[in-house]
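## Example record

The block below lists the input lines for one assembly entry, exactly as stored, with component labels intact.
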Amino acid sequence: MQKIFNPQSVAIIGASEKEGKIGNILIKNIKPKNKNRKSKLKIFPVNPKGRKIEGLKVYSSVLDIAEEVDLAVIAVPAKFVNQVVEECAWRETPIKNIIIISAGFGEIGGEGLKRKKGLKDLIKKYKLNVLGPNCLGIINASEDINLSFAKANITEGGIGLISQSGAFITSMIDVAESEQFGFSLIASLGNKLNINENDLLDYYVKDPETKIIAMYLENISDGKKFQTKLKRIAKIKPVIIIKAGNSQKTKEAIQSHTGSLAGESVVIQTVVKDAGGILVDNLEDFVSIIKVLNNFKVSKIQTTGKKEGLVIVTNAGGPGVITTDLTESYGLKLFEFNKKERVALKKKLPEESSVNNPIDLIGDAREDRYQIVLDYLKDIKGIKGVLAIVTPQAQTPIKKIVENIAEYNKKMPFPTFPIVIGGEAKDEAEKVAGSNGINNFEFPVVLIRALKKIGKWNIPATVLVKQAKGEKSDRISRQEYRTLLSYKESEKLAKEFKLNILPAKYPDNEDDLKNFIKKLKLPIVMKVDSPNIIHKNVKNGVAVGLNTVKKVEEEFRRFQKDFPGEKILIQHQVENGMEIILGLKRDTSFGLVLIIGLGGITTEILDEKILLVGNITNVKIKDKLKKSKLYKILKKEKINIDKLVEQAGRLFELGMLDEKIIEVDVNPIFLYKHKDPVIVDFKIMKISQRGSS
Amino acid sequence: MQKIFNPQSVAIIGASEKEGKIGNILIKNIKPKNKNRKSKLKIFPVNPKGRKIEGLKVYSSVLDIAEEVDLAVIAVPAKFVNQVVEECAWRETPIKNIIIISAGFGEIGGEGLKRKKGLKDLIKKYKLNVLGPNCLGIINASEDINLSFAKANITEGGIGLISQSGAFITSMIDVAESEQFGFSLIASLGNKLNINENDLLDYYVKDPETKIIAMYLENISDGKKFQTKLKRIAKIKPVIIIKAGNSQKTKEAIQSHTGSLAGESVVIQTVVKDAGGILVDNLEDFVSIIKVLNNFKVSKIQTTGKKEGLVIVTNAGGPGVITTDLTESYGLKLFEFNKKERVALKKKLPEESSVNNPIDLIGDAREDRYQIVLDYLKDIKGIKGVLAIVTPQAQTPIKKIVENIAEYNKKMPFPTFPIVIGGEAKDEAEKVAGSNGINNFEFPVVLIRALKKIGKWNIPATVLVKQAKGEKSDRISRQEYRTLLSYKESEKLAKEFKLNILPAKYPDNEDDLKNFIKKLKLPIVMKVDSPNIIHKNVKNGVAVGLNTVKKVEEEFRRFQKDFPGEKILIQHQVENGMEIILGLKRDTSFGLVLIIGLGGITTEILDEKILLVGNITNVKIKDKLKKSKLYKILKKEKINIDKLVEQAGRLFELGMLDEKIIEVDVNPIFLYKHKDPVIVDFKIMKISQRGSS
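Predicted structure tokens for the full assembly:
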């Protein structure tokens, strides 16, 4: 592979003096761009017509070149290719490494297929290394070697590009110019008759100039090898992959659930993600991830503890708020400053500034204010990165701010990303960033998507759980504002509105209990009915499946012991139906909202919430329900939705009754094929002062 | 409101001659940019110091202005504002319309709150219309009136912007310049003490220059009014909204399922979507949607029938394929050409081009080739838009192609979007597009996201269903390549690998049946066991809950009649457990893939697929399972996963046995709390020729 990417001598077969011909572009492209190109590359143009091209002697055949030749680049018409290849092999010192630019093989069918077969045989017979056919060639930008018919001038940099599409390469070269990154190696795979992505990965990972491997693939030549290789290589260098051409394949007939669960695109996702690579589906993400990984110290970021996350610094409220929302909705964590840190930072900044996260420096911020913040942040542990939003206000010194940020990226342990938004300001920022070795991001969302994909800024699952638990304890302390009605109270209201609530009894003693069991019939469910115990399950405040009188009595005694002074309720345990949640919520802006969703274990996994806002009628409920996934499920289970609609409508009416009702949770209402729905649990939350109800 | 956006006379209170002061910027900004400004606006600078500013006479108080004044713009320090407002009201001809630029009210607390209270009282007392305080002012670009301290020169155009953040406005003005769109009206809402978004919506919808209403909101002043208004207005003009500040609110304690299902952000989504508005969460989408709606004939697109969709035209394979994948993954429909159309188009294009969708014009395409395609497309019914991808190849005439596309947008019934990718080419394209009244999109994904959000290009649900049905009939015709083993055959293999498959019996006659019922015990399930009937349910090939011998016998007779010659199997009907699907699939690139997922009605709604690819061991299965949502659910239900892991491992071994096994579908395997899992149905798909097994 060394001789393909860094040959000492190359024959350009099909070299041409005719402007615009590939054979001519090749000869022009291979000229040194730097006068002091390290490589002492010898070039042998080959063309039966002979003469001279661009001052170089032309050989009429590779057989005429007396010296050793490391590499041949073939750009003759397809029908002559195999003959030329054979000539390469026939030489006294055979040319074993060959790049075939020419198209007209397998991809055109017919004659092409025959040529493909012939070429394959030659490769095998003479043990050749062939890149292509039907490719753009290679570029070794670090060594100033361009053996392709892409652009002549390629910016040098750390990206090693492997592409199954030539046009993808030319587009990327163009994008790189404006987005300010450069390449080490570029290779066009073409038809992958011999050399494929696996071979190139081996070379790229060893190449010292290549920091990041970026690939565009349409199919994978040897999946198992690729998987093994990727696992190893992704630990050494970041590998970013666009795998295109999934949609055609997903259209293939699918004969089973398994088939539909494991479509091609899902398999490649699994392979790449498990191996530690980064898979994207579009060019924008591809480019932004390259920008992040190429110029920022992402590798230095370590997950050290819980107090960690990103910091947003901004000179504009709006964009700061949008970015905060986005970090959250993409599951990235924001750093939480403690009070000491906030006070210390506040002292250094003007009165009107805000030192939460985002840190708002106010519209008149100049470079010094960004500097103060970054100086302060650099010693705080747990900061994983700074998103520095700069909007062009009256006197915002874009250039100085971006230059400063570039400096900080050199000395800080975490990356600081400039996000200069809008027009001229952005153009200026891009230029300044590029010449200072970093990149600008015009839109926060593009950077955030890149960070998410790279995955180092994600909220660890444990932290999420911790937060959720923290919230729970908050809730209890807020009891003074919100009161949960007892089941008995809720039941009363529900009955008034003709909601099918499951009747309950409230035994005070064992005599009551016996009496009630007879009325309700076994099996029995027992619950604590207390506004103080919201999550009954957590505290063993629910007992189900009590199918003998003895069991009910035993549980009753335990409840009396475990929950002294609390009301205990019993209900007949109805047959499980389809679990649905109904709910009401009073939104501060829009008033009463009606919610319908699947209940049970599925609540957590169904990404559908049916919401109705505003003037809600049964017709509207039904219309909206009919457009939902839930409806499909109900239909499949042959459950009529009219009864559900009716109950939902009544629930809404109940909510309309009293402005103090801020949340109602019907969880669940059981639906049945041949029976009316039954509400099994019912909670009403009201606003009120402590002590009142 | 007319007097705020288009006054005949305005007092600038706090006007200043000091460079850089807001009072000075205001005076400079209000000067006409066009010499022939329609508005004969009279300007009265007010400052206690008097003298002259920018050649205008300065009044020491509004009380000194003898003439009528439509509007006052106040930019004095906060502590003087209320006094100045009162002076406006005290005048012989009171000034009722006031824009308060000054900050220092509710947003700073303390003193500010007192001022807020005072100002509120004044508004009520004198019936004033007040925009602000703490705002940037307004701009009426159509009338060349800039009463803000944003930039002086605003490009005129069709966007009416309403923003609760001043910085958002300055950013948008800057972005608009480079992205080539302009504004009609701009208003900064500030603290919304009096005039709010609802009032402005009324004015914007009537403004003839405003084609699109674009809003940035952090909170909504009167939700119900907003909802009603939006419903009406979104039918007249497109309304695009960024609602920011959701993340803070979602952090509020949530006391019930309902609460968590209906977070603030979900409510606003519902409201805007139901009303026909477009809600986005980031600036990039905001801008790209504006670009699409502003300059392309989106409104003319109508959903007419089934044969409709988007067309992708490209001069580069790779980007074409990526874009095709994206349209599909975003649920946008591609137009399907029929054979006649393909043949006709092919005749007009070079041999190597491809006339599917995408239409690939090949790298050497010049403007004429794009022209040929667009000419041809313009008469085909059902095309809803063209995505014209242009990558900069050796001789691609970017300017001509974009100019052509602009021309076609004038005469075609659908929009054609130029997507010129990369660097200089993109810069050129943006300029050319802008000066020809359209916009360029650098990355296909950005345009596709915009189209998706706008929603006119979505695949209608009915079409999706049709396609799915089409696929089903395809499947049957492919039977010659894939064979479904009988349950009996599958059962045998499963037993060999110690899979807990539910035993089945295959009664040939009623005597067998009676005998088997005794062995298996009631209730009984009966199924047709035929490779010809894959979806048994569809054809009544399954009977469940047969709980008397008589019922089993009756069904048996029906089966014999309905499925003559087919094997019938019976099983004991086990108690329903947690339904899980296990599966194997042989991927062409990566070999055997193991899939684990939730079964039953939840398969369709759980967006999780647990896939294992490569060398699969029980340890790996368990590790991956433990990271899944499914695991959380199993844990909650107190189901031990070891047995599931073991069965999955055995299934994998079964797949390793025989390369011809290409799919295995264990659907479902029931899991229980205190019992071993049971496989209830088991399908093996093998590749084979018709007739063999």
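The CA atoms of residues 25 and 559 of chain A lie 88 Å apart. The longest helix of chain A spans residues 461-477.
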